[in-house]
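User: I'm curious what two different proteins look like when written out as structure tokens. Can you demonstrate?

Assistant: Sure. I'll show them one after the other, since each token string lines up with its own sequence. Here's the first protein:
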Amino acid sequence: MFRRTTIVSFASLLASSAIALAIASPAAAVSKTDRAREAIAAAEAKVHTAETTGAGAEAPRDAAQARAALATAKEDFAAGRKDPAIQEAIRASALADTAIGVSQQRKDNALASAREAQRASADDARATADAARNQVVAAQGQAAAAQDQAVAAQQQAVSSQQQAEQANARADIAQQSAASATADAAAARNAALLAAQTRPAPQVETTVTTKQPVARYHYTRTKVKPRTTTTHTTTTSSAPAPSSEVTTTTKVTPQ
């Protein structure tokens, strides 16, 4: 910034020197009074330009020196000191040019800074937007994953419920089978007890055989049943014999 200001000041001084040489040129037959008046007018216009463009705020020192030099030129001109008036007017113009250059340079720098800040802000905004989009995409992915997990959990719950219902059905069948088996066992026990209590008497069968030498025999058959005894007797006889043989057979059949 200091180098830029120095260059502007040097250019302003060169311009002021050129003006001074032009004023001092013997080619123009102009009096010192007119030259002083013209130099003061030019300096006054530049100081006014510096003030209206804000150079007083940007380069207050140069602007103040330019106003002071212009005031001195006017005083010298009013006192009849034409040459000092011309020199002060030229210096006032140079200082005004410096103030204008510094002000313009600062404005350019401020504009560049503003543009840079705007670009940085735009970059930050784009980065923020990209980050926001990435977050949205990530959130959508998480939501989709959560939804898939919820669907899988729901399907698993349905499968578990079906398995539980099947297990309950098998348990009911097993319980019914156990109850039926228990009832059958109880019925069998009751039947066994009843059979033991009402067991019929055994069947007794007795056979008596009598043999004689001349094939004469006496046969008696007796059959005994519970509460009823039936005797069947078959007798075959012939002429009496001197001796006989008797055989008795008893058969018991349990019921």
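Here's a second, unrelated protein for contrast:
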Amino acid sequence: MSLVGKSAKRAAAGARGSAWTAWAGRRDRVSSGPGRHGDWAGEAGDFIDRALRDVSHGRFERSLSGLTAMAAVITTAEIYIEHYKASFGNKLMWSPILVTPPVVAAGIGGVFSRRWAKRWLPLAAGIYTANGLLGQYLHVRGVARKPGGWKLASYNMPMGPPIAAPGLMTIVGAMGLLAAVLRREE
């Protein structure tokens, strides 16, 4: 690019910058009625600032309780579909489905009650996490039991039970355990 091209580009950028500055200054003088974009953007910015401040100060109990409940529902739906495809061949495949309702109830309860978040959510989330760890063991064992076992890992891992899938359940349970130790938002 020639020297003239570079200086023209800088001049255009400077013109955009001054136009932006003029618009931003005008924006402050415009009256903002109900439903104006400026109000909405300001409220969203305030919400994000408050959420980030709460997280940085360890006050995230209610939000993480609700996220745990929602993530448990989504995770268990995926688990149900995959275990259904496998015809629930092992009775232990039902265990993630059975341990989910207490986690969901405790997570929702933790949003509205400090007692639920401190008493019932860690208990239910601990069981959910332990079930995820059990699933991790069973999935590793399932790959090992395929013909050729781990010697044919390049074939048996994609064709056998997914190794990383129970880790998602463990992470969701850990979110519930973490929510129980955090401070409550105002």
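A detail about the second structure: The longest helix spans residues 114-145.
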